User: Fold these one by one.
Assistant:
Number 1:
Amino acid sequence: MRFSLWVRQGHRWLSIAFTLGVMTYIVAMSTGGQPAAWLGLLALVPLILLLASGLYLFVLPYAVRWRKARA
């Protein structure tokens, strides 16, 4: 399996993890009081990884065109 396919599949799973982290944080906020700081990181860590993989997937078609033009 090519690297870009692994990144695409990882990006999909990260989006699920991010959604679950946000939902957990919303539930914790709705119970009243201030949720723990580490609970906010449940959504932040996948979000950072989503940013990296999303930027890679965004640039990928342009990089392929650029390589074809140079060849």
Note: The first helix runs from residue 3 to 30.
Number 2:
Amino acid sequence: MSDLEVRQLRYFVAVAEELHFGRAAARLGMAQPPLSRTIRDIERQLGVALFERTTRQVNLTAAGEVLLRDARTALEAVTAAAHRARQAGSGSPRLRVALKADVDGGLLPQILGTYGADEASLPPELVLGGFGEQPQALRDGLADVGLVLCPFDSRGLDSEPLLTEPVLVALAAADPLAARARLCLDDLADRKLPDGSPAVHGRPVEHTPQPGTTRPASNLSEIFSLVETGSIVFFAPASVARRYPRPGIAYRPVSDLPDATLAVAWPHDARSPAVAAFVRAACTVASAQHLQAEPVAPSTTT
């Protein structure tokens, strides 16, 4: 049996994720017949069926499920290898730090200062992304280390927790719920999050669009503008609420919403002294800060 090619794995993953040959072909920018032939070639090479096909639907077999898991890992490794090789070969190596703007617990300036004093440090480059994008940036080799909110997809990554703080709900100051000192998720049954999902589900850091919804607000400025109009509510760590007091927004604690933990994360196989220096700096700063969330008073802003 010959080894599978990267191209074959990409084709297989597209079909496995779409479970529709037409949509997978469109996603890959190719015609459907050659895609179908490639999948049949893969099945012949492996000697197993990867899909159960009927006139109405396409489903993965047990073998297909296993290949999908491992193919994703293999493709991530190939992508990461290319990005890391490109970075290593550049004339000015840097430490690429992935994070969501303002979601750093207020620690980033101190971390960078402490890190910069380490003899193993490299010039830092901030790789900004949306909520929850940092772990994939690390796996893809687009960043060397990251500040992430837990829980997160930790495949292929190591991490150390830095601080834990309450998650608050941001709602319009004119909202009747703003008159309460404390809320629970059931109180938010009729409210929506920025991604269009029900707030009662309590998913504070996921902001990918849900099926049938429009593009979610992409930054805090957009989110806060929508919150002020009463269009949405927003779950935010207490440090974000402290950083962005606005007269049109009320921040309230939610009794049954889990706390948010900020962690520093890096790839399992990282061997860079600069990554180790950043992790040391982050843990040192977090330990010295002893940040604890403060009680939220029932005022308009916190």
Note: The chain has a mean pLDDT of 86.
Number 3:
Amino acid sequence: MIGEAGFYGLFFPWLMVLALAALGLFWAVRRLLVIGGFYRWVWHPALFDIAVYFLLLYGITHVTYLLQR
């Protein structure tokens, strides 16, 4: 996972690229949870959002690691 991604001569850390991908996926998941009314059952929505984001980031990182092998 160590490395960088190049975009028109700019180099970004690979974790930053994965974090942006997880952020986009998180926005979609959060919208689905709001539409479904799931947040009525959540005690602390901000903590839940952070936990979901980090779980998505871990999942994306794990998938990219497995694809590199």
Note: Strands lie at 4-7, 10-13.
